[in-house]
Specification:
2 domains; seven-stranded mixed beta sheet; six-stranded parallel beta sheet; 10 helices; 29% helix
Amino acid sequence: MKAIQYLSSEQPAVFHEVAEPLAAEGKVILEMLYSGLNHRDVWMTKGLYPNLKGGVTLGSDGVGTWEAKRYLVNPNVNWGEDALLPGDQYRILGMPDNGTFAEKILIGSDRLVEMPGHLSLQEAGGLSLAGLTAYRALINRCQLEAHERLCISGIGGGVALFALQFALARGAEVWVTSSSQDKIEKAISLGASGGYLYTEDSWHKSLNKLSGGFDVIIDSAGGLGFSQLVSMAKKGARIGIYGGSKGLIQDLSPQTIFWKHLSILGSTMGSDKDFREMVDFVAEHKIHPIIGSVYKVSDFQQGFQRMDYGAQFGKIVFDHRK
Amino acid sequence: MKAIQYLSSEQPAVFHEVAEPLAAEGKVILEMLYSGLNHRDVWMTKGLYPNLKGGVTLGSDGVGTWEAKRYLVNPNVNWGEDALLPGDQYRILGMPDNGTFAEKILIGSDRLVEMPGHLSLQEAGGLSLAGLTAYRALINRCQLEAHERLCISGIGGGVALFALQFALARGAEVWVTSSSQDKIEKAISLGASGGYLYTEDSWHKSLNKLSGGFDVIIDSAGGLGFSQLVSMAKKGARIGIYGGSKGLIQDLSPQTIFWKHLSILGSTMGSDKDFREMVDFVAEHKIHPIIGSVYKVSDFQQGFQRMDYGAQFGKIVFDHRK
């Protein structure tokens, strides 16, 4: 069978023939239908991830079949007993453990969650890791409530779009930021109340005035824009951080943080409990993940490049069917 | 009677004759015994506080007598119904409402809490605002637990010392930082496990190694040192911010915040519920506030100067007795 593997820094992503997995106790062999691409996979191919190991199949997301049923893959390996924090043995599927970018994968039966019936196979393929990250950050960490107003920075990526959909399903009002007016328009067509280009001068002052300020803010950039996001926080607001693509945070006012009783909450991935809750939430609210592009797995390089350029709006998924 | 009042920016703190308060419905006249000085009072005399109003008696802390019983003053005015967040009408006693630096004060009977019997009058005089701020930040916001390790930056001020005492009473392990070895030694004599001079190169790396890292960190400085404090946080740590004397926070790593699932929690003052809980906690654990110096109220300028120089270790209190 074929799989996308990391071999070395010279051959960081190779689609080649590998041995089929062998049955093992407590594990099942899942035949993959669709898998989803995450930034994590792209960063590995660029050497931007710690402890890379050669000969490992990449990929954290996916949907597959086992005994005629369809299952989502829970990307957690050994989160541990504490739902609030991962244990020291926690890993994400797809490095150093073999991941989902393969025809068949060997996986613990406790990692499989039945696919909600309203999802298409493509939608199911791109749900796992980004959905989990968004759910934990927004719902379990920031505790977004129905009557609240949310700002999502940098709309377009997988986690940001799930945050948009989850927040709307919960009944919250959602605003977005982007460097692309096209992405803002797309977000509005999905239900966002409005958006603003963070490339404009004093964008945060304009957006604060326009929206009335935010109860919850979700950010994966950090950098110089973070303190501008914080300036739009209402008293008692929660600000979730699930990434830091723009680097170190600067010029952050401690006075704003303590006078407004703000909470800045870091979050990454989520527990097995978060994962089950997220899938139940998606099923209950009949949420359809936004799929940006679909590639045959043999054309995976196009998907990696698309994500690297930041051009996508929605998940990039790979079709593993023959 | 005499009181310390803010008159104008030219006469920011004057000890002079004022009219005695007149009885009013729902209010009582409390005869002051001791009052406590806070940074807030000093900042007002330097024009560093918003919306200053002439002819207002300063002071937020104190203990006094009414109908032969001794009462602590709850410094909150109109916190509101929500214990988690102050309402829009929230004020702290001592600007724009007349405060505690007077022979007698007119105050709502619901603002009085019976003085725990183990306290001396001096100790009781310096408890209210700093005790409230420390209790809410450390216990109700950061949720410090008995088995955890706490770092308190800048030991010596009122809130930091209450945080030290409350944490020890809860059974936690406490470390401190300071620019003064003398203050560190004093903190150790009070029960701290150790301390480190933040004026030393790479002090945070040394303290992290020495202590093993922190579950909770409490800071009122911000500035360049904040991200060094954060670097010592353990996975799942809570970092409480209750001040920002060193200005804007710089070079804060979003990666550290999300990978470690950190919570950075702003807090200032506390609710009426926090105040009652704090006084109960002080009574239950027989905590004796650390008093740094005592001045006759007529010598208040010495107290203001001492706080301004940052020389104090413990609360500065004023004796209002004839």
